[in-house]
Amino acid sequence: xxxxxxxxxxxxxxxxxxxxxxxxxxxxxxxxxxxxxxxxxxxxxxxxxxxxxxxxxxxxxxxxxxxxxxxxxxxxxxxxxxxxxxxxxxxxxxxxxxxxxxxxxxxxxxxxxxxxxxxxxxxxxxxx
Length: 128
Hints:
4 helices, mainly alpha, elongated
């Protein structure tokens, strides 16, 4: 089960980061690089990563016997956590590099996806 969960987490991380960076570039053409750009990119990356993961699970690709699609409540928590991850990504992007929209979107998508992955891990853990 650990290998299957790892595949799900990697899907969320990769899709969230790539979509965040791409939408950061798209939104960056329409607005200045600021925290709103980070939140929009991170939220979009988080939603895309969660939808991609659920799509793979529903189609049965790389799914173990305990793997299931995430309920709506986990999606809502992921949206809330994406705000914190997006703002953290904005801060890191401004500290590491010039605040370009691609860097802001990529870091926002990455950190939002990390928080979403932690929610997926918490959801799949069985209480002892």
